[in-house]
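In the design runs reported in the main text, the only information available to the sequence generator was the tokenized backbone. The following block is the verbatim input for one such run; it is reproduced so that readers can re-run the procedure and compare outputs position by position.
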């Protein structure tokens, strides 16, 4: 039972890596830096609209992951336009934009899928990929925000 919480390295007797793996991180800059990062006055206000690029800065911060950020931005813009992308569309996108296949298929696409920004499926009876926009990402973050708000009065009451 104790082994269930151990990482692969720990199970093999190796020293565990320090820190959060980069594929599991989300960039949360200091709240007083948001206006500068998003180049918007009052960026944190609910009434201030953010573009796709603004949201993606928290997933692939251009300061640290510029190529991933630009690749994800182009891809999600195309997905928003089309609504659904098939394997041939994705291959054409990668070729047209001269994006590294390794970067796109091994880094960008899996991360967008893992955090719930996209939904990646296979066609029944074939191995062809279909990608659709997903709302799991927003549900996930809304749940975190909701629980934080729910806990807040308890802190103030004590």
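Verbatim output:
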């Amino acid at each position: 039972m104790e082994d269930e919480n151990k990482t692969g390295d720990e199970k093999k007797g190796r020293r565990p890596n320090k820190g959060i793996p980069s594929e599991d991180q989300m960039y949360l800059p200091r709240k007083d830096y948001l206006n500068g990062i998003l180049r918007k006055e009052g960026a944190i206000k609910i009434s201030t609209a953010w573009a796709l690029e603004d949201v993606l800065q928290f997933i692939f911060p251009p300061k640290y992951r510029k190529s991933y950020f630009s690749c994800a931005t182009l891809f999600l813009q195309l997905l928003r336009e089309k609504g659904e992308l098939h394997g041939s569309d994705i291959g054409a996108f990668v070729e047209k934009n001269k994006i590294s296949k390794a970067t796109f298929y091994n880094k960008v696409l899996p991360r967008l899928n893992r955090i719930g920004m996209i939904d990646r499926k296979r066609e029944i009876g074939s191995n062809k990929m279909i990608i659709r926009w997903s709302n799991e990402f927003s549900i996930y973050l809304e749940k975190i925000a909701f629980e934080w708000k729910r806990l807040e009065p308890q802190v103030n009451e004590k």
